[in-house]
Amino acid sequence: MRRLLLNTGSLAVAASAFAAAHSVGAAAQDTPMIEGNVAMVSDYRFRGITQSGEDAAIQGGFDLALDSGFYVGTWGSSINFANGTEIDVYGGYGFESGNFSFDVGGLLYTYPGADDTMVGEVYGSVGTTLGLVDASVGLAYIPEQDNLGDEDNIYVYGTGAMPLGDSPFSLSGSVGYTEGAWDFSADGDGLWDWSLGVTTSVMGVDIGLSYVDTSEDFDGMDATAVLSVSKAL
Questions:
Q1: What pLDDT digit, counting tens, does each position of 136-195 carry?
Q2: 113 near 94, Cβ under 8 Å?
Q3: Share in percent of the chain as helix, strand, coil (round to 5)
Q4: What is the mean pLDDT of residues 10-30?
Q5: Which of 1, 106, 169, 216 has the highest Cβ tally under 10 A?
Q6: CATH number of 7-232
Q7: Residue 32 CB contacts under 8 Å (≥ 6 apart), including other chains
């Protein structure tokens, strides 16, 4: 499903980080900034689960952010269900206080051409720098809604990223936990996912390789390596 919260190889937390980079005092002149992104991934994994049938996917999106910290954006990806396309729309507010950055917002998952599939989610995160590590923790909550059989869903996660010495490479990792409508574990007692990856940039193109796994061993949820090639526009 979407990019914002631990979607390996996609926009990932870029929208959150972009918005949170604006401080509270930056509202004097609300100048809009538009950024785009495009990516190709070897497997579209959302919270550890394939959305592309373990095949490659093409992805991209646009964000509009204001100096005050408010932002809106959209992001899409090819998938192997719901007529083959996912388009997400989101908006929120990011700000800084002391050594911490905060981000809150809402997200709508849509699947054009597929009936009764739209899902709404709210999210929040807080990030800080611990030595060389940029770390964050967050929560995403889906209230009960018809398109999820009147169930809700909660996802909590943590991420970390750091440079690898003086090399052009960075190391990043994440761990998350799902409980509710999107818990596809065999026992229904919650689904864990985690990832560990290395990224670099070559001539303005970002290249990443990540190991992704979950607490289940089903097809599409088992361990895999995901290669991503992306560029900011």
A1: 999 999 999 999 999 999 999 999 999 999 999 999 999 999 999 999 999 989 999 999
A2: no
A3: 10, 60, 35
A4: 45
A5: 1
A6: 2.40.160.40
A7: 64, 65, 66
Helix (H, G, I), strand (E, B) or coil at 147: helix
Q: What is the pLDDT of residue 30?
A: 82
User: DSSP class of residue 131?
Assistant: T
- Sketch the domain layout of the chain as residue ranges: 7-232
The CA distance from 18 to 192, in Å, is: 27
What predicted TM-score, i.e. pTM, was given to this entire model? Answer: 0.89
DSSP conformation letters of 9-46: TSSTTHHHHHHHTS-GGGGGS---EEEEEEEEESS-EE
The residues facing 178 across adjacent strands are 155, 191
Distance CA 183, CA 154 (A): 9
Residue 22: what pLDDT?
43
| Alpha carbon distance 170, 204 (integer Å) | 15
Distances (CA, A) of 118 to 13, 24, 88: 21, 33, 10
Q: Per-residue pLDDT for 16 more than 70? A: no
